[in-house]
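Re: weekly structure request thread

Next one in the queue (91 aa):
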Amino acid sequence: MKFLPKRSLPTVVALLAVTALSGCAATEAKDACGAEGYQSLVGTSLAAVTLPASLNSRIIQPGDLVTQDYAEDRINFELDEKGTITRVFCG
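Done, posted below.
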């Protein structure tokens, strides 16, 4: 069995630390818009929901043209043909 030279150990430790920290940052940015707090609305009619006026949101209905710009603080509500919320996500 081969072992790494002693001088390689700090490099390996640093790479492991960076990898672990990058996973934390990705998790925090994943819900920057607060979509997790609105997941309970999935399956609910949009007409029955009152969203805060200050909420940076976008309603996406079937067939809507949607820009591909990514705004991590914008919450998206995707609807089906009946106006039921099917997905809530950031972007």
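The mean pLDDT is 82. Residues 62 and 80 are 6 Å apart (CA to CA).
Next request, please.
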